[in-house]
Design goal:
single chain; 407 residues; alpha/beta; 7-stranded parallel sheet; 4-stranded mixed sheet; 11 helices; 29% helix; globular
Length: 407
Amino acid sequence: MDLLLKQVRINDEKELQDVAITDGKIIEIAPHISGTAKETIEGDGRVLIPGLVESHIHLDKALIADREPNKSGTLQEAIQVTAKLKPTFTEEDIYTRAKKALEMIISHGATAVRTHAEFDPAQGFTGFNTIMRLKDEYKEFIDMQVVAFPQEGIFKAPGTEKMMYEAMEMGADVVGGIPYNDAPANDHIDLIFEIAKKYDKDIDLHQDFADEADDTSIEYLCEKTIKEGYQGRVSVGHLTALHAMEPERLTKVIEAMAKAQINVMPLPATDLHLGARNDLYNVRRAVTPIRKLRDAGVNVALATNNIRNAFTPYGNGDLIQIAMLAVPVGHLGGSDDLPTVLPMITENPAKALGLKDYGLAVGKNADLVLLDTKSVATALIDFPERSYVIKNGRVTVKVEKTVTFMK
């Protein structure tokens, strides 16, 4: 054995387990495993989970909140402020910030990430190239999927369509899009599918990010997904307009999403900050209806989106904090609901990203996190330290914390 974890908690209803790892794979899980290992970790009853999966983040735009603030707190100003700053981003600047943000999420237990990397005729591929560089440099710490993302739109920014194809040729893993920031939205969606089919890549869209549901394209996206045979290969972030749909229409939309197997990434840290800014009273939460989507069988994966910029002026890359934020926001704190939240930052995003051999079982990749808590049921609400982060069977992060009460 390369690594042996002794007496860890995998299930609250079962006894503690040992977990044996060789060549980056879990080879045995049993109450007691004999034999020697190159490295042994004493679990002491702490909770072991699969690696966290960050399914929607913008590393290239991280850590710029101090450069120019979004004073109104609106989505419109966030886009304007970021567009103003982007031409000032140098390769070194993006690399330094993105690396710091990447190390934040790794230290908090992420072993896989999907990051949007944007480009446009004004800034070129500076940010995209830098993120591709980090993907290679940190491959032993985290599996990274890079989304080719046209933040400024495609038709609105002439020259971007050509760059989309170029980004795919340069190695982008996923085709990104932003229908609500382009016109017409359905044409934008059609083009994204055309590119995705040409390169046989998945799709990830910033979808219907609005306080109202007056001008949405999610219905068309569901139809297009089924028509093109892309069920399960399309993900959408934000989707906040659903919170404003009247019940009968919302039910039909969610049914269509379940049929099309659309993956949804609610982004509560961003959506709560930017949403409902014009509400004068009875201010809405402006977050996509997580429980209704979940209950209808839609795959829901909570994600960070941004760290300390005009869209989200706070954050530290901790997915457990994001999940805990979603608990009160989405009314997920009930005894039947809380157990469904941890999978929203582990199993569900792994499914959305199409990760192979993911999970805590024999034969799966040894991408694991040992939490400094002894109950799976309270693993989220304890806000535990990530005692060990393990990637491909190798310890990549170790955290030691000492608390002393002074008398």
